[in-house]
Amino acid sequence: MSTDFKSIPVIDVSPLVAKGDDLKMGQDPDVRQVVKQLDRACRETGFFYVKGHGVPHSLMKEVKDVTHKFFHLPHHEKLKIKLTPSTGYRGYQKIKANITKGVPDLQEDIDYYRDVKRGMYGSLGEILEGSNQWPQDPANFKASMEEYIRLCTDLSRKIMRGIALALGGSADELEGDKGGDPFWVVRLIGYPGKSPANPQTNDIGCGIHTDYGLLTLINQDDDITALEIKNLSGEWIPATPIPGTFVCNIGDMLKIWSNGLYEATLHRVINNSPKYRVCVAYFYEPNFDTLVEPLELFVEKSGRARLDQKAVYGEHLVDKVKNNFVMEELN
Asked: Which stretches make up the Fe2OG dioxygenase domain (predicted)?
């Protein structure tokens, strides 16, 4: 449950990065300190900055740079990888094609998913079947993104092991048939700068929402504050960029698994800067076809009544996908 936090904690996860492949890492005193910090952050804010993560700062900058370059291409070039149902909902969508709770967002995006082969998840995954669309320009776009996704997947797995320990389970408690074959989603988002002609407007780059998976790694431009987190009193706390860090937050699936002990926190994006802003958002998810429901171990440890919530992750994702776009723009 979030609190009246006024700032977002910074956690050095380097002990998790170093020890994260060892299932006995919970015996390490440095790892135990990180686990305590993760537990507090997940209980109190649902958001935290991550440093010491091992993803090269140069690569974090490169993926933002190529994202900027793509979004500044002529519109007809961007449409070469247009998102449609026939592309498995992968690719580019123009400004205000994405919607949050029925309201168009002032953003443009490229959506990527882990490859879904035909029949891989039966009818459950049918609408996401396909491979990702990669632009030819910038030339290093695909190689940079694929390396970045690989490193973010490994980092997220290690952070989730720390969170599993924080919840009182084993390091691999949330793996196996729950999250041992994790799905992932990447969204590259561009937010236009505020128009000098309308300096008083607060155009919503992304409406108020929680993330629907497990864990999100946000790689945002270093010089623009636009992401805001809502505390228990309803105040919006800015996630001011800290160069070289990720902003990490937990999602709906972790709330369910933890029996509500860890709450997904509401957030939004408003770009009040005159400068164009990009965000590279990586979403680490459960196994696509797993049933997510409160885990008995965490129900017992939480001391709370069992949440009356459950979802097959893939169904939850597909429902979001079907309702997140202005459909006439996809034809």
From this structure: 182-286
